[in-house]
Amino acid sequence: MKIILANKFYYRRGGDCIYAIELEKILKANNHDVAIFAMQHPENIESQWSDYFPSEVIFKPGPKMFEAFMRPFGTKEVERKFTKLIKDFNPDVVHLGNIHSQLSPIIAQIAKKHGIKVVWTMHDYKLLCPRYDCLKNDVEPCEECFTDKKNVLKHKCMKNSTLASYLAYYEAKKWPLKKLESFTDTFICPSLFIKNKLVQGGMESNKTTVLCNFIDVEKCKRDNFKKEDYYCYIGRLSNEKGLKTLIEAAKHLPYTLKLIGGGPLENEIKESIKDYPQIQMVGHKQWDEIKELVGNARFSVIPSEWYENNPFSVIEALCLGTPVLGSKNGGIPELIDENTNGMTFEAKNISDLETKINAMFNAEFDYTSIAQRAQSRFNAIQYHDSLMKIYDCNN
């Protein structure tokens, strides 16, 4: 089968990019021909398809600003280069990831016009929320734009900027949900939660299928599952991740907490924990160090206060044999079997989180079984097999 994978970036920038890069690997490993369509960027992985990539746009004042403003609506350069790729490669399927703003949904329209099957993985809530994440004021879950996109202007949701919010509003008007639905054969939803939100926002349920994310489980294989006497958080240090709630809970407890990652709250957190030696910031780490830190932890805590979709941080921890204490938010509870591979708590509830941290330290978990079950559930082989059914459907 011949497949074009389209994602705005082609380097390990975030979960959507990692998904695209890993998907390319498993498709090629199963003897499929794969072409890449992304925006040019100095950090991109080297690719034989880079001549087809449209130029980089930067949403900051400068000579590329006009192109950046126009790109979300579908520019001639994107249209020309993607059409050429389709004609030269002649794909059976175009599989989309995060394409808004830097590429734009015009590529879905072009693929459909050429009679090519279009599959689109939903990594975020952009089809419902102009700022992607269903957050108001960066911290408060919000669904107002599900019914009226003008709310993005009312709250200046995009970077608290009137100009950026108007751009997001007109982009949403240019590419409404029903229009995108007409270009797309199947929307892959990594969680039931995001599927239900899309249906709530007006999408036809039969256009969606739930297929959980996958990882390279081989990188999670361990010789033993010995645990040390600490718990950990891994992820971005930002408001929506629930770090402030976690830190307030951790301050009242004697257990060692290791915070893995960096982000905008880094300096604020350093200041707030300076008198609490049980809370340690270890900074950003590469996989080999993450494997040891998360793999040796008694459990990982995911205190997110936004609508997490299908977080890799939960999947990777489970595949390492580390149970997860997760907030009852978004798709997190779908990954946790209570008292078997972890527990859940009420998001933003410091008292409940304290209680559950104590419970996790006193619980007995079968770490080997957690790893085995997770690696069976989230491996690339089963993902490929499920994806082929989606690609082949109605052909």
Could you characterize the architecture of this molecule?
- The chain is of the alpha/beta class.
- It has 2 domains: 2-214 and 379-392, Glycogen Phosphorylase B (Rossmann fold, 3-Layer(aba) Sandwich); 217-377, Glycogen Phosphorylase B (Rossmann fold, 3-Layer(aba) Sandwich).
- Helix content is 37%, strand content 14%.
- Strands 2-1-3-4-7-8 form a 6-stranded parallel β-sheet, sandwiched between helices. It has a 3-stranded parallel β-sheet with strand order 9-10-11, sandwiched between helices.
- Helix 12 (312-319) links the parallel strand 12 and strand 13 (324-327).
Write the layout of secondary structure elements.
Layout: E1 2-6, H1 15-29, E2 33-37, H2 65-70, H3 76-89, E3 93-96, H4 106-113, E4 117-121, E5 135-136, E6 140-141, H5 151-154, H6 162-174, H7 177-183, E7 186-189, H8 192-200, E8 208-210, E9 230-234, H9 243-251, E10 256-260, H10 266-272, E11 279-283, H11 287-295, E12 300-302, H12 312-319, E13 324-327, E14 342-345, H13 350-362, H14 367-377, H15 380-392
Parallel strand pairs: 1-2, 1-3, 3-4, 4-7, 7-8, 9-10, 10-11, 12-13, 13-14
Antiparallel strand pairs: 5-6
Helix pairs in contact: 3-4, 9-13
What labels would you give this structure?
about 400 residues, alpha/beta, 6-stranded parallel sheet, 3-stranded parallel sheet, 14 strands, globular
Helix content: 25-40%
CATH architecture of the largest domain: 3-Layer(aba) Sandwich
Oligomer: single chain
Estimated structural class: alpha/beta
Distance between the termini: 12 Å
Radius of gyration: 21 Å
Biggest sheet layout: 6 strands, parallel
CATH class of the largest domain: Alpha Beta
Give the low-confidence spans.
none
* Total helical elements: 15
Q: Summarize the helix and strand pattern as letters.
A: EHEHHEHEEEHHHEHEEHEHEHEHEEHHH
When the domains are counted, the total is 2
What best-fitting shape do the alpha-carbon axes yield? globular
Strand content: 5-15%
Please give the number of β-strands: 14
- Spatial order of the strands in the main sheet? 2-1-3-4-7-8
Query: What name does the CATH topology of the largest domain carry?
Result: Rossmann fold
State the CATH superfamily name of the largest domain. Answer: Glycogen Phosphorylase B
Q: Would you tell me the overall average pLDDT?
A: 95
